[in-house]
Description:
Elements: E1 6-10, H1 13-22, H2 31-44, H3 46-52, H4 62-77, H5 80-102, H6 104-115, E2 122-127, E3 134-138, E4 142-146, H7 154-165, H8 173-192, H9 206-221, H10 227-258
Bound molecules: zinc ion (ZN).
Amino acid sequence: MKEKIKLNFKINEDYLVFHVVSSGFFSDKHKKDIAAFRNFAWGKSNVLYNFLRGAYDPSLGVAEFSKKILEFVSSLRKSKEFKLILDQTKDYLSFCEKQWMQNYVIGHKTIKDLTGFKLDETFDVYITHPSLANGAFLAPSTIRWGHSEDWPNYTTVYLWHEVLHSYFQPSTEINHALIELITDNELRIRLNGGEYPPLVGHETLSELREKILPYWRDYLKRNKKDIFELEKALEKKLKLARLSIFLALCLCSFVLFRSPSLS
Ligand SMILES: [Zn+2]
C-alpha cells in the first residue's frame, strides 16, 4: 500500500493531568483510581485544582499563577496516584495502536472507496485515559483520543472519524453528518457486520443524518465516488428544501392574514 495514514500515538503527561481532572466519566472502570488522583490533587491545592478544571480565579495575578500551575502539575505528575493513571493510559495506548494496525487494511480500503480521498496524511494522536471521554481533531494534524470501547472496533471507527475531520475543513453540520455515515455507520458495519438504521452518531445531527440517508444509499451504489460532489449536491438540495419550507410558511401566513374573520 503506497499511500498511508500514519498515526503517531503519544501521551503528553501535562495534558493527561489536565484531562483527568477536567473531564467527565464514560465508564466505571478504574473510577476509584481516578477519584483517588483527583482527591490527591484537590488536597494539594483546591485553587489550582479548580483552575485546571476551567475555573480561573481572576483575583490571582496571571504571572504568579502561571508559575504555580507549572509547579502544581509537575508535582502531580510525580505522585503514585498519577503513576497508576499513567500506566493504565499506556496500556490503553498499546490497545489503540494494535487495533488500528489490525484493522488498517480494511479501514483504508473502506474510507478510500467511500471518499476517493488521497489518504497519505500523518497525525499525532494524544491518548487519554479510556474511562474518560475524549475525541477531537485539532487542525492541522492533531487528534485527542480516549474512550471506553463501547462496541467492537470502536477505537478504529472513531480514529477514522477524527482523521476525516481534517479533510472536511471547515467543519459544517452537513460534512459532519457525512463523516458519521462514512465511519460511525458504514465502516462500523463493514468491520462488525449488522446494518443501519438505526444510525449511530451525535444526537444533535440525527435529523440531518436521516434526511441525508436516501442520498447516501444512492451514492453507495455508484462505482466511482467523490464525497465532495455529494457534499455540494446536499448543500444545494437542503438549502432548496429550507427555502421551500420558508416560502410555504410565508404563503400560509399571507393567506391567514388576508382571510376575513369569521363571525
Ligand atoms: Zn466529529
